[in-house]
Every structure is written in C-alpha cells, then in structure tokens.
Amino acid sequence: MGRLLNACASKPEIRYFAGRMDNMKLFKGKATLVRLQYLVWAAVLLISFFAMLSADGVKRSATSAIINSCFYALIIYGNIQFLYPHLYQKKRYVLYAIASVLLLLLAGLGKGYLSFLTHNRYFASAPKLLDAGTYITFFLSGITVFILSFIFRLAIAYFLMKQASEEALLQRSQFELKLLRAQVQPHFLFNTLNNMYYEAYLDSPRTAQLIERLSDIMRYFVDQNIQDTVPLGTEVQFLDNYIALERIRIKPEPEIEFEKKFDPGVYIPPMLLMTFVENIFKHGIDKISGCNKIEISLVHQNGYLYFHTKNPINKHARQVSPNGMGLDNLRKRLSILYGDNFEMDIVNDGQYFKATLKVPLHESTVHDSRR
Fold first, then answer.
1. What pTM was estimated for this model as a whole?
2. Are 308 and 235 found together in one domain?
3. Is residue 250 part of a domain?
4. CA 78 and chain centroid, separation
5. How far is CA 41 from CA 36, 79, 108, 154, in A?
6. Which of the ends of the chain has fewer CB neighbours closer than 10 A, N or C?
7. By the 8 A CB rule, do 234 and 220 touch?
8. For 2-21, what is each residue's pLDDT tens digit?
9. What value, to the nearest 5°, has the Cα angle with vertex 251 and ends 246 and 255?
10. Exposed/middle/buried for residue 149 (C-beta within 10 Å: 0-12, 13-18, 19+)
11. Quick one: the chain helix, strand, coil %, rounded to 5?
C-alpha cells in the first residue's frame, strides 16, 4: 500500500499512468465495440481487395470489395440485430426461418444487380446478362455468411462480457482502495470506544457492556459487511448485539423470543437478515400499550436457512406498506444472489406482521468463502 501511495504522489508517474488510461479509452464503453467492428470490416474490405487485385486491377477490385462487404454486412447485421432478437429469441421460429430466407434472397439479388451493373457500365467491353446460376451462387454464399453471423454475434457477446468483467474488477479495486483509506477514522473510533469501555467498566459494568456491543456492531459494518459471505454465527451475533441495544432504548422492554438452530460455520451473504429485524423495531413497537411480543426463528435444516419474524402491528403508528423500500431492495438483492432459488413471504393480517425467508446454503458457498 505504501508503494502505491508513493506512486500516486509522483507527478511524472501520474502523467504516465494518465497517458496509459487515455490510450485504454479505446477499449472502454460502447464506442469501443463500434471501433472494433470498424476494424473488422476494414480488414474484410482489404482482404477482398487484395484477393482480387492481381486478376481484376485496382478499380474493379475496389468496387467488388465494397459490394461484397456491403453484402456481408447486410446479412450479418440483418440477422444479429433484427431477425435473431426480434423473432428467434421470442420463439417465432417459423417466421424467423421465412424472414431469413427472404433476407438471403434480397441480399443475393442486390449483390448480383450491383455487381453486373458496375461491371457492364465501367469494366465490360460488351454488356453481360445475369443467369440463374449466378444468383444461385450468390444465394449459397449468403448462407455461408448467414452462418458466420452467429460467430460474429458470439464474438460481440464475449467482448461485452469481458469488458463488463474488467470494469467490475476495476470498480472493486477502487472501492477497496477507498475503503483502506477510510478505515483510519473507524479504527480511531474503535480505540476511543475501547478506552471508554475500560473507564466505564469500573463504575458501570452494564454501560460498559453496551459500549462493547456498539463497538462490535460498528466493527461488523467495517470489517464484515464488505465480504461476499460471512459465517452465520457472526451474522447471528450481529443480530444479538443489535437486539440488545434496542432492548435498552425501548421502554417498557419488549418480550423477545429468538430461536436459534444452526451450524455457526455455515456462510451466508452479510446483512441478509438485518432488514427483517430492523423493521420490527422501526415499525412494530407500540410504546403506548407496551404489548410488544416479538418472535424470531432461525433454523438451518436440509441445506436451507429458514428465517421467520413475527410482531404485533402497532395500532398507534402510521401504517406503512408491507413491501417498503428496504424489503424491495432486499428482494432485488436476493434475486441477484440466488436467482429464483429463494422464498420470501410478507404477510400483514391487520394484527401481526410476519416475514419468512428461505435461502439455500450450499457446501460450495462455504468452500469459496473460506478460501
């Protein structure tokens, strides 16, 4: 890290890396893909030109190369930009086959007409007529180009995927660097909390315990929340600390039952359960009646984690939607993490608010997290 910061402090090296980044702009963003395709078609044009140069001369070779390149582009882009996404991917297979044949016929007729038109007008001593064999040849060559269009499409998809992966890696590296710089202040705060803990322990052990729990919560945010996965035992300890602090804040103290049956070594994404628990204390606590019985259950069984919360509806508070922003964001995150392999149910029956979550815990997840 010291070397990196020293490098950033050197002005000549900053100019050097800035120049390198300017050069890399050719390979970033949508314009990059456009430039790449320009290069491909320039190569096709030059290859066609030089392949016919010795036999046909400069002018005729250039004309034929331009017509052939336009012919190839019409078929390739007509397929990958229109026919394939709008017909084939929407399972309109018969219409896709018919449209593909029409595209090949149109391209073949166009190529044949332009080729003989330019030949008769500029290069032939006597006009020549098109025959059926020539059109068949153009049609068959169009089929070959049509097949190659799928390879062209795969190449574009691979390029975009690789580009997205590199950008994600760059963003992650930048985030980690910013995090390392930002950790100076949290560590200062942790040291201060530790000093407060030792001072409070002599006079008020209960206050010292609260300071310790607060320190653990903040350390979790700094150290664990940036990880892809954390031990389930660590996540549960974080929930325990949060619940303990809420017990002190709320008077009269709520009645909380927290059932725990799990393997502490199993790994899950961090902050996956916090939204449900936070909603309980944010929307489900009735300080007027004081009747606040909260049920929380966390069970690891048959490769799945079952998490359930239940709390009474606060009749004296403004009612909120059962699908608030926090829960919507959580559902989106679960979709990214697990696809369709999860269950999340929210029920508001007017008396109780119930939330249930079921997510898989695979052995591969445990292995990858520990590596």
1. 0.46
2. yes
3. yes
4. 29
5. 9, 17, 19, 16
6. C
7. yes
8. 443 344 444 443 344 344 44
9. 70
10. buried
11. 70, 10, 20
